[in-house]
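BUG: 3D viewer hangs when loading the predicted structure for this chain

Environment: internal workstation, default settings.
Expected: structure renders.
Actual: progress bar stalls at 90%.

Input used:
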Amino acid sequence: MILPKKVSIGDTVGIVSPCDVKNYEKLIKPEELLRSMGFKVKYGENTFKDTWGYAASAKERADDFNAMASDDEVSLVFFGGGDVGCEVLPLLDYDAIKRSRKAYCSYSDSTSILNAITSLTGLVTFHGQTPRTFEDLNDYNVERFKSVIIERDGIHKRASDWTVLHGGACRGRLIGGYTQNVCLMLSSPYFSYTDEKYILFLEDYFWFSEPAIVARYVEHIIQSEFFKNVCGVIFGGYGEGDDVVTQFLRRKAESIGIPFVKCNDFGHGTNNAIFPIGAMAELDCEKASLRFEI
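Structure tokens produced before the viewer hung:
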């Protein structure tokens, strides 16, 4: 795997919108906070364009992404979710992305883009925060951004108690993200995996998926060929109905018999921990610890 170059205070953060169209008003405060932390901010040319009625064209969005990959001023490419990130996958310049060794950070629908980059280039990407995270930033998210993106601290800091659904410890390569997109990427030509072991992290949110929908997604993942290589699972926040989701996950954990924990450290909720996709990691359920090599 290829580790991205470190991001330093004073560097330029490039903001693009590969998954939907962004409203500039919603990004004013995130931009101000990034600048207050000492970063410069640059927007993609088509970030606020609505060519297709739901986003800029796939080519316009991919052009912005590829431009940020080739821009020597930009150290971090920061982007949000939406619904149509998969449209840009065939148009991304993976060679330029690999050569850039930049940090790419997002979550939600961008799960597809992050995992495609890691899968096709070997470059570690970061799942967990978007520019909108900076709209109402809390201390935990600031600390996680600085620790993982800037300082490259490989010790995950918990924001919540962990519920151990099946005990044990394991070592594998981190992979995962938003459950719907993990399901979609399993049949995508822009995702591949090897015979090595993986620690799978998943998250969902009650606004988007009822507990039964989460159950459907998780069951689909478990039934996939890929899951045979999964040695441990971490499931993040959900929100209202969390007890129902946790009980479903407990039943699945007992049936598959691998280390499995539920927490509220990452996802669409208040806490947005950052996980490096593609990094080797160690999960210990009893110690409630996760370490990764970045």
